[in-house]
Amino acid sequence: MRTTNLRFEHRPAGEPALGLGTPTPRLTWVNTDAPDGAVQTASEIEITRTPWGASASTSTVTLDGPDQVLVAWPGTPLAARERAEVRVRTADGAGAWGDWSEPAAVEAGLLSVEDWGDARFVSPVEVGAFEAPAPALVASLEVPGGVRSARLHVTAHGWYEVHLNGQRVGDDWFGPGWTTYPKRLRYYSYDVTDLVHAGGNEIAIALGDGWFRSPLTWELRTGFYGDRLAALARLEVVTDAGAQLVLATDGTWQAVETNVSANSLYGGESQDLRRPFLGSVRTAVEPVDAALDRLVAAEGPAVREVDRVAAQKVWRSPSGALLVDFGQNLVGLTRLTVRGLPAGHEITIRHAEVLEHDELGVRPLRNAKATDTYLVAGAAEEILQPHFTFHGFRYAAVEGLAELAASDIEAVVLSSALTRTGWFDSSEPLLNRLHENVVWGMRGNFVDVPTDCPQRDERLGWTGDIQVFSPTALYLHDAAGFLSSWCADLAAEQHADGNVPIVIPNALAGQSLMGDMVAAAWGDAAVIVPWNVYRATGDATILARQLPSMKAWVDKVDTLAPNHLWLGGFQFGDWLDPDAAPDSPADAKADGDLVATSCFFHSADLTAQACVVLGDAAGAAHYAALADGVRTAFQRRFVTSDGLIIGDAPTSYAQAIVWGMLTPEQAALAGDRLADLVRLASFRVTTGFVGTPIITDALSMTGHVDIAYRLLQETGCPSWLYPVTMGATTIWERWDSMLPDGTINPGEMTSFNHYALGGVADWMHRVIGGLAFDPIARTVTIAPVPGGTLTLAATRLETPYGTAESGWRREGDEVIVHAVVPVGLRGEVALPDGSTRQVASGRHVWTVTAPTASGRPETIRDLIGSPFWEPVSAAISAKTPLADERAITHMLRKALDAPAGMIAMAATLGGMMGPVAEIQAEVDRILG
Q1: Cα dihedral 319, 324, 327, 328 in deg (nearest 10)
Q2: How many domains, the chain?
Q3: pLDDT at 236 over 90
Q4: Does residue 854 sit within a domain?
Q5: Contacts for 565 with CB less than 8 Å, ≥ 6 apart
Q6: Least confident of 8-22, 178-192, 287-301, 598-612
Q7: Checking DSSP bridges between strand 792-799 and strand 779-782, what pairing results, if any?
Q8: Model pLDDT for residues 459-483, shown as the tens digit of each residue
Q9: Which has the closest alpha carbon to 99: 1, 5, 25?
């Protein structure tokens, strides 16, 4: 058995875990090359420790048992700056020791305020004002002799880009990221040993406005966190002779202007490349009053370049604009190479997600200019690329060039550098593209915070979006550190009364309405996101840290819900119900009070479960009783005795079914009614933000997986696949962000890169692919449910234990199911023929008889959505004004139990006008 992928906390394997904020980092590793059924029985951990500036020592610890994920640090705590190299090997059931893992490095960061020593935040005095050229802070350090090791610890008010001896430090962008700056400010640590040399060393910390003082939100609130850019840094060097040198930011540093003449988050960047990046005129800096006790080490990865996308096409639009299509809606920036232009020649690049009337479609950007401008230096060849901005785009318009080769421009994709962990594939190309759109939507909106959109004057961490998408996010990527950090910001922003702002970080604070709004489903992120991180990782530490926040939110709602019903007041509710008018996104079919009360129950229930996990018996009893009370009040107010729910809205049924708010008998009837509502909508999506991520689960949980498949595979608008048929490469904010005629939705609010509605990918993984991972029970569930028009499907998940797989394919009357269970887990298997079994680690294959397809439909209910439905509805449309099949199903809404052969008569009784006899004859022919 071989041990691989050794990592610490939630940092990626293969990267040095530098600057950790804990002195006792937990270890995780993977066992591979093991025979089927292998079990780890013991582990041996070798630790070579090197305190900063001291010599190394090695010790070994042996642990009994199978633990291999988040294993407690087996030695004494690391001191600040202390480095350790760790190797692990494991023994199997036969007692044989496997090979040692490759050594993995871990290093503690600055663990206390005192570790920063004399370093202070310093800010330029004469340069760096708002809307002036971006400043840089500069200093030098003389190093006698060779360098054994060097580290840079840095943070900023604004975005930093560090250059050391003319070389850029690290590959991070937009450090220190976006947190609740007054309460939590990240710092990052870099190994700069290779950049420091004997003699004089020059360091420059360039500063951009970033999230700190760029205009934020649609109100363009400038200087939200402050009006002065500043940096805090310690450059620490150990020479070959053992001398320890420190260069810390203080009043002796100086400031210069850069050639970045303007920069902002929404507006873009301007550069005057006739000037060097760092100016030569040095001016004073001064320390600024800024607390160091709010500094925290990063939990997740920084924003980095994760891909490059070549231009697919360059052409002139009808107006003469020089347009570029990258073929993929993405987030990042453009990198343009120009040659032979005279000094001072201006190049402008505008960005947008879509075209409208064959021109750049900029209306959805609202106040965001998304424009970069360059005055070139006049060199033989120059590369034009911004430092302190990013854009959401697929298309670019380049001004200032007569012509452009596609090979001279590319898109640099920027995202938090999360490790990909989940994949999906099937026999249906449209579903595969949908899944790829979900991945790209997450990539574009996980830029340090989980934003709603990456292109317009918003880009905020909306709580409602991430709470519905977090299960999908945690499957597709190792997002635990990313989301854990965001949850810490949520708790920091939470009001004293328990209310949770609707965006985190709360860039809406101080607004008369939005900043203090109490909103169901949005505020519930305080409970749902940490719970989902725990369920995906088995790491209860996030629950322990967030439990006070979880309780505070539920307690806040409890004060607003007399008699356990949350009634009245504004709610986002089932936001963006597709039947709502473009300018009324909160006008949903689902009753707002019902949605809010359902969310109240769900959060109380999950908080009770979190208390159980953490051994909080009193809390578990209190919140379980509260959840029971809410469920009872919900049933009394909103549910009939047999399970119908007032308003008869699909989202209402989905919430009640999936969250366990009904009796088994009620749930069965509610599921049947939900299935009918989906049929009667001709399988178009009729749910908004709250219902859409869970409606397929509600259907499959109540025996209607065929309806869920049919809903997922619909291509008419609104549906998941309609945007795919329109060429979408990310998930849209609205189902009809682009109308069938190629024009942009007339609503003031529309985006072509919103990940929330892509939450259905979670169902695709668990039900279509059939794979679910439970780190608490140490199991993988293999339970694929073939359906729809698919002939095969598969999904793969890189768990902390190793690769898990589930997949299936049809061959005649048989279904072949394959699975991979990694060492350390067991498999719980449910096959399509209804049989179950348990398996150990290894590769497994089963062949079972496929469920027989139903024959001729007996009722109109069976007919709608069956293979006969398309020709039958086409026959009706051909002889009536009912061109839209949704109009046909509307005529049939009270006749679902009628025989399938009587559909023409049933439609006539429902109000259809047309030649009944002719339609009936054609239906008889189709049905045979």
Answers
A1: -100
A2: 6
A3: yes
A4: no
A5: 593, 597, 630, 633, 634, 637
A6: 8-22
A7: unpaired
A8: 999 999 999 999 999 999 999 999 9
A9: 1
Enter the tokens of residue 144. Answer: 């006698």
In a domain, 249, yes or no: yes
Domain, as residue range, for 606: 422-760
Reported as type and span, the H/E element at residue 432 is helix 429-445
User: Secondary structure of 563-582 in the HEC alphabet?
Assistant: HHCCCCCCCCCCCCCCCCCC
The domain boundary residue, chosen from 245, 263, 297: 297
Closest CA to 128 of 330, 388, 364: 388
Q: What pLDDT is recorded for position 850?
A: 83
Asked if residue 128 is part of any domain, the answer here is yes
Q: Which of 213, 228, 200, 209 is nearest to 138 (CA)?
A: 200
Residues 444, 564, single domain; the answer is yes
- Per-residue confidence at 216, pLDDT binned at 50, 70, 90? very high
Output the domain CATH number for residue 171: 2.60.120.260
Residues 349, 366 within the same domain: yes
List, in sequence order, every residue forming a beta bridge with 216; answer none if it has no partner: 221
Quickly count: other Cβ atoms within 10 Å of residue 855's Cβ.
Answer: 9
Whether 275 and 347 share a structural domain: no
Rg for the chain, CA atoms, rounded: 29
pLDDT at 916: 83
- Amino acid in position 535: R
CA 893, 899, 901 angle in degrees (round to 5)?
105
Q: Mind spelling out the 3-state secondary structure of 623-650?
A: HHHHHHHHHHHHHHHHECCCCCECCCCH
117/104 same-domain check: no
Q: How far apart are CA 81 and CA 55, in angstroms?
A: 13
**In this predicted structure, what is the pLDDT of residue 29?**
97
Residue type, 926: I
817-859: pLDDT as tens digits:
999 999 999 999 999 999 999 999 999 999 999 877 667 899 9
- What are the catalytic residues? 458, 733
Residue carrying the six token digits 């001016």: 283
Same domain (yes/no): 385, 475 = no
Last residue of a domain, one of 806, 830, 849: 849
The CATH number of the domain holding residue 514 is: 1.50.10.10
- Both 320 and 412 in one domain: the answer is yes
**pLDDT value for 883:** 67
Q: Is 765 within a domain?
A: no
Indicate whether 728 and 774 sit together in one domain: no
Between the CA atoms of 774, 777, 778 and 782, what dihedral angle is there, to the nearest 10 degrees? -50
* Residue whose token pair is 């398996």: 839
Does this model's pTM top 0.70? My answer is yes
User: Do residues 479 and 625 share a domain?
Assistant: yes
Report the mean per-residue pLDDT for the chain. 95
Residues linked to residue 234 through DSSP beta bridges, in sequence order = 153, 248
